[in-house]
Structure formats: C-alpha cells, structure tokens
Automatic annotation (TrEMBL):
SUPFAM superfamilies: NTF2-like. Residues 12-117 form the DUF4440 domain. This is SgcJ/EcaC family oxidoreductase. It comes from Jannaschia ovalis. Gene3D superfamilies: 3.10.450.50. InterPro entries: DUF4440, NTF2-like_dom_sf, Steroid_delta5-4_isomerase.
Length: 146
C-alpha cells in the first residue's frame, strides 16, 4: 500500500534493493496478479512475495534496479503505471555476472480507503532490434522483419 500512485515505483525499487520479498509483496493486493518476463503468473500476494523473496536472496541478490521513464495515468480509483527499468548484477547459473537488462513494467493500482495497492503487474524484457519472437523447435528467438 502506498499513499499515491507516484509513490509506487520508488517503493517497489526500495523493497527490491532491501532484498525484502515481504515488503515487495505488501505493495500488492491479496488477490493480485503478477506476470514476469518469462510468463510465470503469480496469482496472489503470498505467491508474489515468496517468488521475489527467493529470487532476491539468490540470482537477484546483487542486482541494482533503477527506474527510467515512468508514466502514470490516474483514472480516479484506478491508476495505470508504465515504468522503464534497468537491472544490473544478475547472477548467471554459472556464477558469473550476467549483462544488464532493460524492462518495461506495467502496474495497475486500485485506490482503497487506506491508500493505493497494486492489483496487476506485468514485466516485459526489452529486446533491442527485435519486433517479435519467432517460435521454432520449442525455442523463442527475437526476430526483426524490417
């Protein structure tokens, strides 16, 4: 829960940087949905907190998350946020540091009596130079038809 939609992205980043899955989960409604970059779909606050807690203690333990452009569309009792994010320091399966990633988050917030809570989130990796993915042999390959 945050006091205003403009507080959500900073609170999300603060919970991430504190490696606190419970604090991150607390930003979401009990029955919130969260779809990550690979299409994993968590369907409640507890699942969102658990998944992020695990990731923030393991392969995201040394990451730095920062926001770029953030837009907020306030629709009264609902707000839609789009936020460009940069992620650095992810640990690869072999223990090395992976390259930097850029993503765009979409968050849908709902106004409650005690503040704003996120009811839906979607994280999408930005793949430079690609307009879509091409499925072939069980693998997705970033593809550009231009």
């Amino acid at each position: 829960m945050v006091p205003a939609p403009s507080d959500f992205v900073p609170a999300f980043i603060a919970a991430w940087m504190a490696r606190d899955g419970d604090a991150l989960g607390a930003l979401f409604a009990e029955d919130a949905d969260f779809v990550n970059v690979t299409g994993i779909w968590w369907r409640d606050r507890a699942a969102i907190a658990k998944a992020h807690g695990y990731a923030l203690r393991s392969f995201f333990a040394n990451t730095r998350l920062s926001a770029g452009t953030v837009t907020i569309r306030d629709l009264g009792d609902v707000a839609v946020i789009h936020a460009r994010m940069a992620l650095q320091g992810q640990t690869a399966p072999d223990g090395t540091e992976a390259g930097a990633r850029r993503t765009i988050f979409s968050f849908v917030l709902h106004r409650r009596d005690d503040g704003w809570t996120c009811v839906s989130a979607q994280n999408t990796d930005v793949v430079p130079g690609a307009e879509t993915h091409l499925a072939h042999g069980g693998t997705l390959t970033p593809t550009d038809y231009r």
